[in-house]
Each structure stands twice: as C-alpha cells, then as structure tokens.
Automatic annotation (TrEMBL):
UniProt organism field: Pygocentrus nattereri (Red-bellied piranha)
Signal sequence annotation: 1-28
PANTHER family in the cross-refs: B-CELL RECEPTOR CD22-RELATED, VASCULAR CELL ADHESION MOLECULE 1
Listed name of the protein: Ig-like domain-containing protein
Keyword Signal: yes
SMART domains: IG, IGc2
UniProt xrefs under SUPFAM superfamilies: Immunoglobulin
Pfam families hit by this protein: Ig_2
Residue span, Ig-like domain: 138-215, 222-301, 308-387, 394-472
Length: 482
C-alpha cells in the first residue's frame, strides 16, 4: 500500500501535489524519511565520490535490504541493486547501515556514471518498499583549460581551468607548464604579455585529475621574411627565373606583393620572369601581410648576364683621315659582365687587341674595312664594318708614251700620266713651260716636228700636287728614211 503511494509520485502535477501532502502526513505518522545531503553533485571524471545520505525507517519496521538503484520504484518492477550491476560492481560501495546511514561511495567515477541515483529500502512488512524521492543527480565532468578564442602576440592572456559543471566543492587548482607545477592555485592563470615564441604546454589539475595540455595559438604579423631565387647561381638573359617569398606569420600570409625598386610588379608568393632580359636587372623586394601587420623583405639584387650587344665602332678624330696622322678606333658595347676582350680585324686578318686600336702614322695601305669583335663569357659579337679611307696627295707619278719606241711624223701619239693619290687627281700637261692639255691622257694625232720637246704632267688633288719627270719626244721625219 505504501509502495502505491510512492508510485503515484510519477503522476501528474495536481495529483503529485496531493500525494506530497499525503506523504508528509504518512511520514509523520510512520516516521520514515530519506535525506540526501546534496540533490545534485558535480564531480570530476576519475575522482572518488561519496554521496552522503541518512534515513529513518518506519517504526516497528526492520530494514531488510537497503540499496541504491537508478530506477524509480514502480509497481511490479524490479529495482536492480547498483552493487549487482556489472557496470558498477567493485567500483561502488555501500557505506551505510540498516537503520540510519545510507551513504554510497564511488571509488572512481566514470563518465557513464552520469545519472540519477535513488536510495531504496525494503522492510520486513508486507509491501514495505520505500524510496527517497528526487534522488541524487550526478554530473561527471572533465577538466579543461579554456584559452581565449583569439590570442594576438603581446596580449595579456588569462587561461581558465574549467569543469563543465560547477564543482560541488571549490577545489584547489594546480597549474602546470611543460609538466612542472606553477605557484598559482587559482582557477585562472595570467600570462602577460605573450610572445609568439611561446611554445609552452599548459594544463591544470584538481584533486589528482589533469586536464589535457594546451598550447597557445598566438597570432602575429609576418616576421623573418626572406626572398629566394630559383635557379640559384648566374642568371643569363633568356632564362626563366622565379623569386619566392617566404615569411613566418599566423595566420599564414595570403598576400604577397613584389616590388622592383619602388614600383609594384606582381602579386603572389612567387614571381616568375620567363625569358628574363637585361632590363630586369635590379633590386627586388617582397611585402607580406596578414591581418596583424606587414613586412618588407631585404632587397635581392638581380644581375642579369648577357652577351655583348649594341656594339659600335667610333673613330677619333673624326673627319678626313690624312696619311701620316694618328687615329684611334674605339669599340664600345653593352654586355654583362662588361666586355673584356676586344679584337680588331682588317678584312679577315686580326690586327690588334684591346678596346682602342691606335694607328700611328697612317699610310695609304691602312685603308680598308675594319671590324671589332667583343666577347664575354656569354658570347661574342662582331661590329659592322667601318671603312677607313686614307687621303694623300699624289705620289709615284709617271708618264708613259704609246706607241712605244721611235715616233714617226704623222702618227698618232698618246701620253698617259699615272699617279697614286686619294682622292683621285686632276692631270695637266705641260710642254716646256706652257700648259697644253688636261686629262689622264694627252693625244697628238698626226704628230709633227713642232711637237718635239719635253713633256711633263702635273697631278693634283686637294691635298697637293706633283710634277712628273720630263718625257722627251723626239719626232722623226719620214723623209729622213727615204
Ligand atoms: C508498534 O508496536 C508496539 C508493540 O509491539 C505497539 O504498541 C505500537 O502500537 C506499534 N506501533 C505502530 C505504529 O504500529
Ligand atoms: C518486523 O520486525 C520488528 C522488529 O524486529 C518486529 O517487531 C515485527 O514484529 C516484525 N514484523 C513482521 C511482520 O515480521
Ligand atoms: C598587460 O599587463 C601589464 C601588467 O599588468 C600592463 O602593464 C599592460 O598594459 C597590459 N597590456 C595589455 C595589452 O593589456
Ligand atoms: C582567483 O580567481 C577568482 C575568481 O576567478 C578571482 O576573483 C581572484 O581575484 C583570483 N585570485 C588571484 C590571486 O588571482
Ligand atoms: C616547454 O616546451 C617547449 C617544447 O615543447 C619549449 O619550446 C619551451 O621552451 C619549454 N618551455 C619552458 C619554460 O621550458
Ligand atoms: C589581401 O589582398 C586582398 C586583395 O588585394 C585584399 O582585399 C585583402 O584585404 C588583403 N588581405 C590582407 C590581410 O592584407
Ligand atoms: C645602343 O647604345 C646606344 C648608346 O649607348 C643607346 O643610345 C641605344 O639605346 C642602345 N640601343 C640598344 C638597343 O640598346
Ligand atoms: C688615342 O688614344 C690615346 C690613349 O687614350 C690618347 O693618348 C691619344 O691622344 C688618342 N689619339 C687620338 C688621335 O685621339
Ligand atoms: C679573353 O682573353 C683572354 C686572353 O686572350 C682569354 O684567356 C680569355 O679566355 C678571353 N675571354 C673570353 C671571354 O673570350
Ligand atoms: C710606283 O708605281 C709603279 C707602277 O704603278 C709601281 O710598280 C711602283 O712600285 C710604285 N712605287 C712606289 C714607290 O709606290
């Protein structure tokens, strides 16, 4: 009958209320009661726990079986004793007795122990089964170190040691860094300020229970930024070159910007120059940034090597080149490394080495086509031909006569003057002291005795003139032979 009363506890609210009033009267009458020290308990996984409990059986009843169960007393159902449950056997111990104390002890609490527990007892009276209403609500919690969601380098950080439910007893906390205990016994640990180098591991402990270790995920702007180049070594024009920027940052850098000198030339972790050219030489930097800052790398100097190009020959002094003067031919070219080896050719033959080819006392034989060849370790190049035209006054002047031999009156005779000069000469013919003609040749058709005499030719250009030796014409009379 009394069991029925207790069962009705599970009924609707109005009914329960009536029943409660009834119970209190019954309790007063029968004088039975169960008192749980705490209605709810929060404890750490792995810890030991005692649920304190006292009770008074009804008078004239003798308790035959006091036990704890997870089941509410309902009609006809069995209420397994916790001590018989394989899940609990050996881990729980009934500390109470059969008339007053009903405490229960957990040697080690498991996560699965989270539940409601009821103290129940059976007496020697028929139907004498009693259960303490409400039971004890056991929460099992873990310890964990709570770290602020965002930690930025330089922040003052507070770590908190937290059970999920509020522990029934306020315990003493212990903090550990890299496994060694620290002096703080509070549930919070202050770190001020934190550096991004902080790789320390922290955990907290309570009553022999330890939280998992945490390390701080400290956010910071880019640092130790550097630029590398691939391939390493010499960079020759036409090759492909990749610059890579790397920097340490948290969160990792997403934005890289490349600069040549002061102007931005690209974005991205790498910057590739396909077919690099000499104009790509210069200083390169990269800038990396994340939400916490930005940083520039040191400058990396790119020195693009290339064979000689844009080669030209200059002549000094400029203007006309007179025989006997001195002359410098200078070869200039662009190359990296700068051209060291210059060779000079006249036609196909090598005539000199060196950037400047000095010609002293130039003579007519020096006229011709000159080229210079430049080379560095990456190649060679030959200049356009430069034509040297050496100017000089007439020389080696001579007069010849045709036909050769004795000259008969009435015949035709041609005198030819030749001389060597640059530019070409003008010729003048002189008989005795008077000028008789112009041109390279002087022809006398039908020569007569009056044409006898000494002939000279004068050869002249703007650089000078020269008179030939005299040629004596001796005209024979035909009549002399006959
Ligand atoms: C308990 O038992 C005694 C004697 O055996 C009796 O006098 C008393 O009335 C009983 N009390 C109740 C509540 O039954
Ligand atoms: C129950 O036990 C009490 C005390 O030992 C005794 O007085 C009572 O007679 C018993 N009742 C029954 C029904 O055995
Ligand atoms: C961190 O704490 C130190 C010492 O208490 C204080 O001087 C400093 O201003 C704090 N810094 C920040 C960012 O709160
Ligand atoms: C310990 O923690 C409590 C609450 O978290 C705080 O009120 C108290 O000031 C702390 N004590 C020390 C010494 O930090
Ligand atoms: C803790 O250990 C980390 C490596 O796990 C180390 O970098 C750090 O310096 C240590 N801190 C201390 C205070 O020993
Ligand atoms: C990265 O670049 C994008 C586009 O240029 C810009 O919108 C973003 O704010 C940049 N982020 C950072 C962290 O600088
Ligand atoms: C060649 O050199 C001259 C003189 O140094 C310069 O003016 C010209 O721009 C250069 N040409 C090329 C193609 O580099
Ligand atoms: C040729 O070069 C040499 C050496 O540089 C110099 O001394 C000389 O005066 C130059 N001659 C001419 C004609 O420019
Ligand atoms: C330059 O000339 C020197 C000596 O003539 C020679 O040993 C060297 O190999 C040449 N260098 C180049 C790049 O032609
Ligand atoms: C003069 O010219 C002739 C014929 O052209 C030549 O044989 C001779 O070698 C020249 N002499 C000089 C000194 O140039």
């Amino acid at each position: 009958m009394k069991a029925d009363l207790l069962i009705s506890l599970r009924m609707s609210l109005t009914v329960s209320l009536m029943v409660l009033l009834f119970i209190s009267r019954v309790v007063a009458q029968d004088g039975w009661a169960v008192n749980y020290n705490s209605k709810s308990v929060c404890t750490l996984k792995g810890s030991a726990l005692t649920m304190e409990c006292t009770y008074t059986p009804p008078s004239n009843h003798s308790v035959q079986k006091p036990f704890w169960t997870k089941e509410l007393v309902t009609s006809g159902s069995e209420h397994p004793d916790l001590l018989d449950d394989p899940e609990y056997r050996g881990r729980v111990q009934y500390l109470g007795d059969e008339h007053r104390d009903c405490s229960l002890r957990f040697k080690t609490v498991r996560e699965t122990d989270q539940s409601k527990y009821y103290f129940t007892f059976i007496t020697n009276q028929t139907g004498g089964k009693y259960q303490g209403a409400g039971g004890v609500d056991l929460s099992v919690t873990d310890l964990q170190v709570e770290v602020p969601e965002r930690v930025i380098e330089g922040d003052n950080v507070t770590l908190t040691c937290k059970p999920i439910c509020s522990l029934t007893v306020r315990p003493t906390f212990t903090w550990y860094r890299n496994g060694s205990s620290l002096s703080s016994s509070n549930d919070s640990l202050h770190l001020q300020p934190v550096s991004s180098d902080n790789k320390d591991r922290y955990h907290c402990g309570v009553l022999g229970q330890n939280s998992p270790e945490v390390t701080l995920n400290i956010r910071y702007g880019p640092k130790s930024i550097s630029v590398s180049i691939s391939p390493s070594g010499e960079i020759v024009e036409g090759s492909s070159v990749t610059l890579t920027c790397s920097s340490d940052a948290n969160p990792p850098v997403q934005n890289y910007t490349w600069f040549k000198g002061t102007s931005s030339v690209g974005k991205g972790e790498t910057y590739t120059m396909k077919k690099i050219s000499s104009v790509d030489s210069g200083e390169y930097k990269c800038r990396s940034s994340n939400e916490h800052g930005e940083k520039f790398s040191e400058a990396l100097t790119l020195n693009v090597l290339y064979p000689p190009k844009n080669i030209s020959v200059s002549i000094s002094p400029s203007g006309e080149i007179m025989e006997g003067s001195s002359l410098n031919l200078t070869c200039s070219s662009d190359g990296n490394p700068p051209v060291q080896n210059y060779t000079w050719f006249k036609g196909a033959s090598l005539v000199a080495e060196g950037e400047t080819y000095t010609m002293k006392k130039i003579s007519s034989v020096d006229s011709g086509q000159y080229k210079c060849k430049c080379s560095n370790e990456h190649g060679e190049k030959v200049s356009e031909a430069l034509t040297l035209n050496v100017l000089y006054p007439p020389k080696n002047i001579s007069v010849s006569v045709s036909p050769y031999g004795e000259i008969m009156e009435g015949r035709s005779v041609t005198l030819t003057c030749s001389s060597d000069a640059n530019p070409p000469v003008e010729y003048n013919w002189i008989k005795g002291t008077s000028s008789v003609g112009k041109g390279e040749t002087y022809t006398m058709k039908k020569i007569s005795s009056v044409d006898r005499g000494e002939y000279k030719c004068r050869s002249s250009n703007k650089h000078g003139e020269k008179l030939s030796e005299a040629l004596t014409l001796n005209v024979l009379c035909e009549s002399v032979f006959y």
